[in-house]
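User: I'm putting together notes for a lab meeting next week and I want to include a structural view of one of the chains we've been expressing. I don't have a solved structure, so I'd like a prediction I can at least talk through. The sequence is below, exactly as it appears in our construct file.
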Amino acid sequence: MKFSFLIALVSLVLLFSNCEQPQAPSTDSAPAQVSTQVSITTQQAQVAGLQLGKLSQQAMPRNLKVNGTLQVPANDLVSIIAPLGGYIKQIKLEPGMSVRQGQPLFELENPEFIQLQQDYLDLKAKVLFAQQEFDREQELSRENINAGRVLQQASSTLHSLEAQLAGLDQRLRLLKITPRQLSPATFVKSVFIPAPISGVITRITANKGRFVNPSDVILEIINPASVRVELSVYEKDILSLKVGQKITFGIGDNPNQAHQGWITSLNKSINPDRTITVLAKPQGPVEELIAGSYVTAQITLESQLHWALPETAIVHFSGKNYIYILEKKTPKQGYTFRQEEIKTGLRHQGFVAIELPTSFNLSENTIALQGAYSLVSKLNNNEE
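Assistant: Thanks for the context. Below is the predicted structure for the 384-residue chain, given as structure tokens.
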């Protein structure tokens, strides 16, 4: 009987032990909360150079990034032709060579040049004769010896010959032959064509011995001192532009090589690609600027007011930007800050425009303007 009671008692103890055994802890534990508060003592604040302050409004110039090329005005890009056609007798030029205004570019030869000079002298003699005949008929008319019709005929002949002579005079001047100095002993069959401007040879399309017509372009000269920046600006940005705005631009594969300039004109017509052409004049030396080069430019638009902080107040950490807002300040315990993530915008003269958090109170919130990096270091050490 006593043995049976002991067996029953042991069975009950084992049963209750199994019922009260604690369950194994769940593996699905809640993630740890990341602290956004950091405290430092007054002494730590002094070592970190902590400075407090508030947001301020700063004038931030907005920049518009555009592309374009370097070009020269049409008046400074000269196509050289042969005025009356002929054969290239000699041309001793190469692309890239500099020339001075009036310098001979090439020698042009044509047997018709001799005929043109001969015709001029022949016509000049006829004009002289016609002038004498007109004077004689005019004298006879005063004495009523001849009819008025004869005087009119003499006048008409003189004026016609003078017009023809004037035309030949201009054709000779196109060849740089001075008609007043012309005589049978000074006839030439070839002439030198001079440079109309000082500049640089950019293209040569003719060679020695080739016959060129008056419409053929033989070479081109540009004036590199007149190079300008030609930019393409999209239609949506047109209203932001005006003459006089400053630009900075870089050339080709070196867009960071900053050159300065300012806008001189805005085209009033929209291109098929919905852009307008904006012209700007470079500032300073332009010797290294090459017409046709590709440029990347930034146009400085009118400044706008933005809420901003000094660069030292913003900490960039783990791909994000943070500021530290003062939560509490006591003489004994020091300072307690709250970390806030922000988005940054324009930068200018040491200030950074920011997008304000929705919880930010302009009148009450104070920010760590200096020493922010000490706060992020302290916060990360606390988390570890």
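A couple of points you could mention at the meeting. The CA atoms of residues 130 and 158 lie 5 Å apart. The chain has three domains: 35-72+227-384, 77-110+189-221, 112-178.

User: Perfect, that's what I needed.
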